[in-house]
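Today's session is about reading a structure prediction critically. Students often jump straight to the picture, but the first step is always the sequence itself: look for stretches that repeat, for charged clusters, for runs of hydrophobic residues. Only then move on to the predicted structure, which in these notes is written as discrete structure tokens rather than atom positions. Here is the chain we will use throughout the hour.
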Amino acid sequence: MGDQGVPLLRSKLMVPPLTGALVERPRLRAPLDAGAPVTLLCAPAGWGKTVLLSWWLRTGGPGCGAAWLALEPGDDGRFWAYLRAAVEAADVPEPGTVPADVFLARLADALRARPGPVVVVVDDFHHVRDPGILHGLEFLLRHATPQLRLVVGTRVEPALPLHRWRLSGELAELRTPELSFTSAETGELLARHGLPLPASQLGAVQARTEGWPAGVQLVALAAAGTTTAAGTTTAAGTTTAGGPLDPTCLLDPTCLPDPSGLPMADDYLAGEVLADQPAEIREVLRDTSVVERLCPGLVDALCGRADGSRLLGQLARSGLVRPAEPSWYRSHRMFAEVFRAELAREAPDRKARLHRLAAAWFEDHELPADAVRHALAGRDWAHATRVFDAHWPAVVQYGHPAGERLGSPPPVDELGPDLALACAADLLAVFDLDGA
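Below is the predicted structure for this chain, in token form.
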């Protein structure tokens, strides 16, 4: 029984089973086996944290006693009861039903008295909201190491003294760069779903999903039942007419019957990836999706804030943006696509205004090619023409791809020679030679 007579769910103390579509990743075993007092797996939903940890424990794991605890919203009040049950299952003597501070002291002593270490895996740690739990775990680690190892899976970086453990060499970390699928792992998961791909198509899927395991899974699920212009897709990845399926098309809004893109990706992003993020983070990700790279000043300009540097640091630590070049970041490609589709569907005027704000910022910071692209996407024809006329040698960047085109072409009655040249330069940047 848990606190106040509420039964504890034993399912939360059981290592999850492995599925048939499992992609084993032995390259990630070494950081888990290293034996650091604290191991942190921090990434948004869909990066395979739970699968990796359950695979690790079920295939030999740490070679010592191990306890598993999966958290859910509202578990703060019973956290210590669950932890007590978890370590008891790992043959650590139960400290008894006592106040939290006494419990922690007795548990630390019991752990230190063990002949060997015990690993406590706490999954979905982002559900912890009580600062007292964080202080209690820090106390345990301070007094029970090296007999206690804590392995944490979380979507949001916890408010634990990570910097101190990092400096002392007591912290091992796996974040989105390490947890992302390699091209070979992407190919293996698709093959397990009946979609073996040649290298050219596999490279395109890898580029669009950027190794996001859930994104690769979405490709496979869409390929199992999506109808495209070429015909009806079968589970084997072929179509009834029009030849073999290109799975990259399944994530391209222009290839789908539903112009909003891939509905499953939209639902998963809203229901899982962003569910634990504060409202301000979701709003920043949506508003900055109109640009392909971010810096603090651009975040401030688009979002009307003055703390872009802090926000970008928070987004980077949570794995929602990644470094692109010195002082710049970028969002995950699939996340940005979903947000742009949402803006176009629900707030087209806001999307145009954000592009115009971006154009003004890029012009002010002497980045005329970006300014022209966003002025065109914001349908500010006068601004696009003015910047092009003043900076055309820097704007014509054929051979330096700028990504996908951001907006639709101007109406014919708006096209003068200068605006036509600006549009042609924009099309050259995305290698649309016929359009240019």
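Discussion point for the tutorial: The CA atoms of residues 343 and 351 lie 6 Å apart.
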